[in-house]
Amino acid sequence: MSQDITYIGPTAPAVIKASQRITPETTDEVRHITLEVLDPAFQFVEGQSIGVLVPGPHEFGNAMHLRRYSIANARNVPIGGGVHLDILVRRCFYLDEISGEQYPGVASNYLCDAKSGDKLTISGPYLSPFRMPLDNRANLLMIGTGTGIAPFRAFAQLIYERRGDWKGQVRLYYGGHSGLDLMYANDESSDLTHYYDEKTFQAFRALGTRPLMSSSQALEQGLTERAAEALRLMRESNTHVFLSGLSKVTQAFDRVMAKQAGSEAEWKQLKQRLIEEGRWSELIYD
Fold this sequence. Notes:
CATH topology of the largest domain: Rossmann fold
CATH class of the largest domain: Alpha Beta
Radius of gyration: 19 Å
């Protein structure tokens, strides 16, 4: 997941250790990139993000272009003097509204074109709205689209690989229109099978069934089938909700839950209680 950002803060050198395309050639390119931060003092916690600085010159005379990416792995012990972290990067393009011409996204193309061994500069880590509950009996509902799923991968590593004692129910609901979800599905070849305890963890993917269906529409379609369980868990006092992705993910989740709750007012009341009790958090970008 990525966001534009203006504040830079401290920077550190890093090197690309691996870059793997995780989507089919027929869909949008998404790469899983592993970085080694060469400063052993660099530390992060799950849910945080880093900034990637792209050297210029750029438009308007800017010497650097900065883009923020969520960290997609849990904390680890420094290896060989460096700290390893993973990010998910979708190669992006944008259209000029006046000319109609297509231009490459600066940071995403810079990272997708980079090779193992290439050096770059990062900033951060930056604070995250996500806070993992300390109680291992807490239920976790994680709802995301696109590369917004990155922080949830880090959470899964933390609670199942690093801690290994999570007792609460964990549900991951993912909507997309590409093969990105293949990393996070409940099957033998998936990424999360290395971490989850199948007694508590379940991931539900919803891919678009129509060519022009968006990630949020796919998520809404998939959530509808699981809405009863999601609502039941949210009514329990130890459930925490995390939303990540494009802004439409919140709208899609609200529509599905309002219908399941019986009315918009009933859902708003439950959602407000979750917010007031500190059990609702969002990492949303445009």
